[in-house]
Inverse folding.
């Protein structure tokens, strides 16, 4: 399965029956509002539950610039998050420096390549905390 538009389409159509489990990890759908366009866009992202919140990583594979969805949520932290068939309004924020080490470990436990991505860039890759609105 493709990780992109087709992934989102199948995930949404099947309430995550197709697309939640992906390459040994779990995927959710994050919907943000474009900071320039105002258009809502959905992105499949590896996630982990963390207490009452959910975590995702703005890695963009270790690129020097962050993903557009991250820039969008910086401008408007009100997002929609979908885990399997459950869709809910949420607020997204960047983990604080105090929170990040433990959260980073939780995310690299599910997707070890995040450590490789961080080594590829001087940019500090953020962990995003998604909490129900």
């Amino acid at each position: 399965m493709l990780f992109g538009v087709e992934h989102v389409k199948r995930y949404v159509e099947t309430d995550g029956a197709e697309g939640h489990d992906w390459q040994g990890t779990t995927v959710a759908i994050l919907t943000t509002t474009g900071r320039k366009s105002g258009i809502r866009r959905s992105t499949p992202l590896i996630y982990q539950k963390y207490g009452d919140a959910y975590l995702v990583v703005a890695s963009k594979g270790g690129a020097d610039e962050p993903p557009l969805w991250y820039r969008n949520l910086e401008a408007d932290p009100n997002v929609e998050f979908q885990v399997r068939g459950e869709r809910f309004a949420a607020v997204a924020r960047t983990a604080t420096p105090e929170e990040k080490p433990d959260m980073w470990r939780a995310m690299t436990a599910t997707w070890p390549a995040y450590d490789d991505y961080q080594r590829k860039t001087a940019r500090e890759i953020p962990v995003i905390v998604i909490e129900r609105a």
Remarks:
- Residues 100-110 form the longest helix (11 residues).
